Amino acid sequence: MRGKFGLLLTLFAVVSLPFASAVPSGLTYLDSTWSSLEGDGGELIAMNPNGTILASYHGKDIIFFDATTLERVGSISFDEDISAMKFNPNGSLLAVNKRSTVHLKESIRLIDINEMQVLESSVQADDNFRNIAWSVDGTILAAQGYDGDVEQYRIPSLTLKNTLQEVHVVDVTCIDYRLDGQYILTGDEAGRWAVWDLQGQRQGPYREFGQELVDCKFSPDGNDIVFLGEDGNFTSRVFGGAEKHSMLVDGGNEIIFSENGNRMHIAVDSGRSSGLYTYNYETFDLIQNTSFFHTVEDVEILEDNSSRLQSIFVAAGTGEIAVYLRELIPVGYNNPGVDLDGDNVPDNLDPDDDGDGVNDDWDDDFGCDAPEGTPCSRYPDLEKIRNLEIFIGKEFVVRDSITLPTEDSSNIRNLSRNSIARDQVISASETQRFADAICHNMDHGDIIDQLKETIEISSGELGDAVVSCNVVSGMELVRDGDSTTQITIAITTTFQYATMVTLPLDIKLKEQTLPTDGSIAWLAPAHPISLTFSGDGVETEKIPLWWNDGETTASITINQVSVKNPTAVDSLLDYALHPLAFLLYLAIVGGALTLLIRKQNEIDFNIDDDEQDENELSESDDAITEEPSGFDLSDDKSEDDERPTKPKPIENSTKRKIARKERQTIESSSNKDNNPQKVTRRRKVASNDINKSGPIKKTKRKRLVSTDNSNEEIEPSTSNVEPKLKTRKVKAKSETSEKTVKKRRAVKKSLDESKPDSKVDKMLDEDKLQNDLVKDFIKEE
Fold it and tell me: Do 576 and 648 belong together in one domain?
């Protein structure tokens, strides 16, 4: 029941979270601190209370930077890894928790910042503990002891003062002192937390948060206690009282309060996105958001007297610390002197006089399109200077493309490298994450207002607009360690028309706009600019180089493209290349292929039939038949009588016997005059079997008809057998050979009505033929 109630409470907190749109904080990535060219690490940072020194851990070195100039001011080296570090309240000491060894039983050491040396005092604590805390007066240091309990040590001797026992049985994750110096708050991985006094006495029973605690703190006024769980559950409780507020902050890992306590910042890293969310602590409204494009290991902030964010320092674990600022003022800004590119930095102080993002010392190596006799340091590379493209169509689109300097491009890729795949190149998703982060940090309203004030058009009026960003080149698929490839970013502002424009259109740009707060464009040279004007049905115009001398404006007239009357060939090509025409082409090709396939299938089918017929005929020829020795005498007008014969079974044969077709009779001579004589098939049965008397010759029964035109019947020849004797098919066998020989197919002949055939029939010795047939039949019976 308690679990369901907690779930409902969490859902209610999420739903009740104010939906007011958080505005950008006005800070964006503009600089980095480097430990060395081969720097690594950078998971831990610490800022002294007055915001002048930033300590950063890299490898086995702790490096100190000036928080304003980011110049290196000192370093301390240890032979062991560092797991935690924290400045004391006045910033004179830095406590570090390092790994202990078998021979050196110590972990906590103190560094004197003024002398930049390590003090002799030390104590052994849990050398993996990442959260150490100072008391308000700086006389006590709290950390997780060697046995797991929280211990308080005296400063500067680091002797044990007392131990906070019988609560934490797992690793402690957060320790904080209340500003009045009377109480200390502790929490651990199991979600157990408790409040103690400075003498080590627990104030009431310990309590359970329900999940691992990643951070816990007192509010600046000491009236509240705030908790942040591993799942992003945030809870604020009244000190010694009930719960005050609860909400879900996905990916939250650290809580930071402003000096006056009216704002609360939560560092977030959910894997998909990261940043610093700023809440009004009284209403818990999300009022500001600063987006990061890299992981978040540790965060430190600097504020002004009004608790307004001025700088954010983020450890990303890549050998450098990312610095987020509002704007970047170059060295020598507004100093007197000759200024070629118009960036208000004199050429003697400007490392890039021509404004193409490449240092003057490297210009000649990169090359340029300078006129004859002009050095590349005095003439920009037109492909790398800022380019402003204006597109006139259904919408008025302004695309501002900037190219970042080589050093800043390399820093950005290095900060993104912790999520680089194994092929050591930046993926498309990481590139898009960078574009989304820098675009979110810009003040879109300022960008739109600037362009409206700068661009003048002769007709129509610009209305509402939206701003979007994308990386053109220099990040995706660029290998880690590339120090020369520049990143090009496009900031696109798309206007709707309050009043539609008409052509021809005069466009005038009164000045070259500067970057707004939170814009990464501060890193890129803003001057000079190249201009391109294009659109739907308009002539493209270009101004390749517009120097920022403060007096010259850029003006252009956009005319409609003159369209010639199309010729017959052009019209035919338009119809032929119309998208719908390709559907017709596909239909024709499909139909032709279908007919071709059907035709091919039909041919294959006929070939199969022919092969089957030949096989059947071959099998039918293998069946050997014999005719009886008698004749069937019938009327001249009647057809041949069918005289079936009983076939003799063939031994050891598996072939299917094919029945012989019916023979047709020869028509009478009276019908021959009117109708053509039908052709009858003859089969010749040949046998290769040889007996003692030589080859056995057999002949088929012939029908004897009259060759005269008279209607007289032909008397049959006398025979010793009855005319109606039933016969059967026989097969001649060799007396000397048992081998079965396949018979060849007989040549088919047809009877002809010509007289020569009749004469041949008359010349046959009918008596001898009949006698031979009878003898053969009786012999085989």
Answer: no
Question: What is the b/e burial string over 109-136, where b = at least 16 CB atoms within 10 angstroms of the residue's CB?
Answer: bbbebeeeebeebbbebbbebbbbbbbe
**Do 250 and 270 meet the contact criterion of CB atoms below 8 Å apart?**
yes
Q: Is residue 452 part of a domain?
A: yes
108 in Cβ contact with 149 (< 8 Å): no
* Same domain, yes or no: 550 and 599: no
Q: Is 656 contained in some domain?
A: yes
At residue 369, the pLDDT reads 77
Looking at the DSSP bridge assignments, the partners of residue 54 are 47, 65
Structural domain that includes position 603: 568-619
> What does pLDDT average to over the chain?
80
pTM: 0.70
What is the residue-wise DSSP string for 663-717?
A: PPPPPPHHHHTTSPPPP----------EETTEEPP----------SSS-PPPPPP
Query: Do 525 and 586 share a domain, yes or no?
Result: no
663 in any annotated domain? yes
CB atoms near residue 602 (< 10 Å): 10
What is the number of domains present in the chain?
3
The answer on 665 and 550 residing in a single domain is no
β-strand pairing of 529-535 with 207-208: unpaired
CA–CA dist 680, 664 (Å, integer)? 6
- Can you tell me the distance from the alpha carbon of 405 to that of 437, in angstroms, rounded to the nearest whole number? 19
Same domain, 507 and 438: yes
Q: What's the rounded mean pLDDT across residues 448-477?
A: 95
pLDDT score for 108? 95
Would 37 be classed as within a structural domain?
no
Cis peptide preceding 156, ω within 30 of 0: yes
Tokens of 775: 């003898």
Q: Looking at residue 273, what is its pLDDT? A: 87
| Residue 763, pLDDT score | 56
| 55 contacts 70 by C-beta, under 8 angstroms | no
* Residue 477 shares a structural domain with residue 527: yes
Task: Dig out the tokens for 587 from the structure.
Answer: 């239909």
- Point out the domain boundary residue: 511, 539, 558: 558
Residues 756, 692: one domain? yes
Do 501 and 451 lie in one domain? The reply is yes
Strand pairing partners for 164?
150
Residues 6 or more apart whose Cβ sits within 8 Å of residue 357: 384, 385, 403, 404, 405, 406, 486, 524, 525
What is the rounded CA–CA span in Å between residue 106 and residue 102?
10
Which tens digit of pLDDT belongs to each residue from 703-724?
544 444 444 444 444 444 455 5
The predicted structure's pLDDT at residue 631: 42
∠ CA 555-519-42, nearest 5°, is 150
